[in-house]
Amino acid sequence: MKQNRIGWLFLSPYLIHFAVFLAFPIVFSLVLLFHQWDVVSPLKFVGLQNFTKVFQDKLFFKALFNTFYFLIIHIPLQIIVALLLAVILNRKIKFRGFFRAVYFLPVVVSGVVITMLWNQLYNLNSGLLNQLIQSIGLPRVAWLTSPKLAMPSIAIMATWKNVGLYVVLFLVGLQSVPKSMYEAADIEGASEWQKFRKITLPMINSTFFMVVILSTISGFSLFIEPYIMTGGGPMNSTLSAVLYIYKQAFNFYHMGYAATLGFVFAIILFTVVLIQRKVLERDVGY
Amino acid sequence: MTKRLLLYSALIIFAVFFFYPFLWMVVTTFRPEADIGALSILPARVTLENYIAVFRKIPILRAFFNSLLVSVSVTAGVLAFCSMAGYALSRLKFRGRNAIFFLILFTMMLPFQITLIPQYLLMVKFHWVNTYLALIIPFTMSAFGIILFRQHFLTIPQDLIDAARIDGCSEMHILFRILWPLSVPTLVTVGILTFMTIWNDVLWPIIVIRNQDLMTMPQLVTLFAVGGRAEGLLGLKLASATLLALPIVVAYSFFQRYFIESMATSGLKS
Lengths: 286, 270
Known about the structure:
heterodimer, A: mainly alpha, two-stranded antiparallel ribbon, 13 helices, B: mainly alpha, 0% strand
């Protein structure tokens, strides 16, 4: 009896927080989906107009395309580099802790710093990357000023920032693979590649899944990188989902429409994660 | 032998690839504007003028204080409230406990894109825009933190809690005086994760704070970089970025093991 009362008492901060900062906003966002609102004047009911507008909105599809373009480069690159470094670090390596700490440094540093730094590295004329490229006699690259390259450039930077985290996650996964499996494979005379393909990869499938999901979520959350580097340009080629929601809400004060965009993007993110889950689970199922 | 050489070369090349840009950034901030852009990290002339200009143009010390106040308050709130909820969900028996647990698991899956706009409107209604409250109160609870505390408290022997109850300790006393000292790793993990998330967040401050004196450090530096006030001077921008990176890098260099381990657990979220 006493525990009943104390239990709810201990949960009360959570319950109050949940009611005010989660339940209410969610209910309110459901209301907003069917209204037009600029914060100042009263809510105006518009039925399904916000939704029909989303599906006719070229910029919405552009932002969606940009997000997938980002993910298609970011996820494979992230996995290849992280897995490569993790496999090397998982061997008998001196200074393993040192290397791990260096690779992890960009993970802890604010995305604002990373973006400002890479903004300079990518600079067309004075950027470090173009200086390097020109010093070996190749033409300079329009990293951020070409609509085709701007998003891949941001994806490369995001990989550079996050890959240390995934190195650590893969290392944890690799260390859970029983040594005896490799010893058995050695007796059978398996090559390094066969061991990697037949033992390591299947055994770290759950880490794999985690990396894909976390990268997908970060792609749908992309904001500060295009906000600082390109403002969404050139020609909206780096307009991300969150940046577009932000612009609709705080540049144009279309609160109802911005809430609808958020809702639709969240549904898409959810669907993508579910599909990834299905595909990756089927892969393990042999 | 050649194989080992190859492995170490790969590791070193990647280490340079991750570290050199930071080194270059710091060196660049000590260069006069005319020398910026050079590839090398050996400055020909050294100057402090970039830093002096940053301190003159933006209230960066004030922003550092704001960030510290906000991050410490949020972290303290999260540790207290999440450990209370985690304790209730693991060591107190009451009706509705499982329902609440599933509710918490469910809320972890909600993407922030759904709640961003209505939460901002809530801040407008509460008249919290341009106050510390908007930066602190909405974040003093974390579903992931509750789960971590719950998992940890489940590993503590029931005998210990029973003995404390027989001695007449209140549940508050049991949680904060007996269980907390036994939960240092979990406190550190939840603490670092919360602190880092809040310290590095920019989107929310940009939305709810417009008064320059209340801005957090990443927000102030962002607006300095994209607004016109740095006058396109790269040395100034990078000096402000270096100041923004400094507190976390110093903390990281002392406690890197804890940072890495804490952030690796955040991977378990999915």
